[in-house]
Amino acid sequence: MVVSTGFGDTDEPEGRAREDALLAEVRAHGLRLVGPNALGVVNTDPAVSLQALIGRVPVRAGGLGLSSQSGALGLALLGHAAGRRIGVSSFLALGNRADVSTNDVLEHFADDERTTVVAFYVESFGNPRRFPQVARRVSRRKPILAVKGSRRDADAAPGKLRIAAALTDAAATEALLHQAGVLGVESTQTLFDAAELLERQPRRSGTVRRPGEGGPGRAPVPRNAEPPGCSRSTPLTGSPHGSLRGRGSEARVARARPLQHRAGRLRQASARQAGDDLGAVRR
Question: 213-228: per-residue pLDDT in tens?
Fold first, then answer.
């Protein structure tokens, strides 16, 4: 993990060159790089018990997996979790994502049996084509929550063009999250409201369905499926209302066509009332 700045976060050729050289050195030793410009890493597994943070934040062990691209917001996320007494399984502040990315973190949370809910803050997608593939695999096993931030662009056009670009980015992000089976929220408050609800639910066995596959947590129901203990019904032939009338039961007709029957009775009552009023006027 590298906390230092002055690499790719500077948007200068020299900074990017330093970041490439750092990554090459790390990979030459068979390691993975978190950062640069990373806040820290937390793992509450008793076998690891790692809390390497720039800042002192109380962290409880639990089932919430957290990730953030922003270091400052990462501390805020941990603070929210501590304030609500929500336990955290792992936390990663990714920084520049020179090596370890959001996709890598999602795969880690998918394989981590201690993680029951995944929540992350993202400013941009380094590989938007791979992200839906990874997120869909993870969301089949555990729910994923995401809050999307915005990264300031120094070269962005002012005024209406900047607003249009922001709206386009928001629409594209919403479509990407939906395609990936991720529940996107608009604020950290909503993020932790949902995370608290999901993290404290008893774990259910089976597969969590992503949007488009029967809804989250529901399997698609075949068209010919029947409730347990129910026999297959015999299809009606002819007019169902005629068969009911043939049995001489007006009440059954009323149950078969409640709205039409009630409307007819109201019309009859209105007609009688109008007739009575007209007779009173003539007298």
Answer: 544 444 444 444 444 4
d(CA 31, CA 23): 9
H-only helix segments in 236-257: 240-246, 250-256
Within-domain flag for 204:
no
32 and 123 belong to one structural domain:
yes
Quote the CA–CA distance of 52 and 39 in Å, as a whole number.
9
Q: What values do phi and psi take at 7, rounded to 5?
A: -110, -130
Residue 144 resides in a domain: yes
Co-location of 254 and 161 in the same domain: no
> Is 70 exceeded by the pLDDT of residue 106?
yes
Q: Give residue-wise pLDDT tens across range 159-184.
A: 544 444 444 567 788 888 988 999 99
pTM of the model: 0.67
Residue 228 lies in a domain: no
200 has a pLDDT exceeding 50: yes
CA dist 82 → 75, 114, 172, 225 (Å): 11, 18, 32, 45
Are the C-beta atoms of 206 and 220 separated by less than 8 Å?
A: no
CATH number for the domain including 70?
Answer: 3.40.50.261
**Is the CB of residue 40 less than 8 Å from the CB of residue 54?**
yes
Q: How confident is the model at residue 207 (pLDDT cuts 50, 70, 90)?
A: low
Quick check: bond before 143 cis, omega within 30?
A: no
Average pLDDT, whole number, for the chain? 76
Structure tokens at 137: 């695999």
> Bridge partners of 41?
52, 92
Of the residues 149, 184, 199, the one at which a domain ends = 199
Domain of residue 114 covers: 8-199
- Work out how many domains the chain is built from and give that number: 2
Residue 61 in this model has a pLDDT that exceeds 90: yes
Residues 154 and 60 grouped into a single domain: yes
Of the three residues 176, 199, 222, the one that is the final residue of a domain is 199
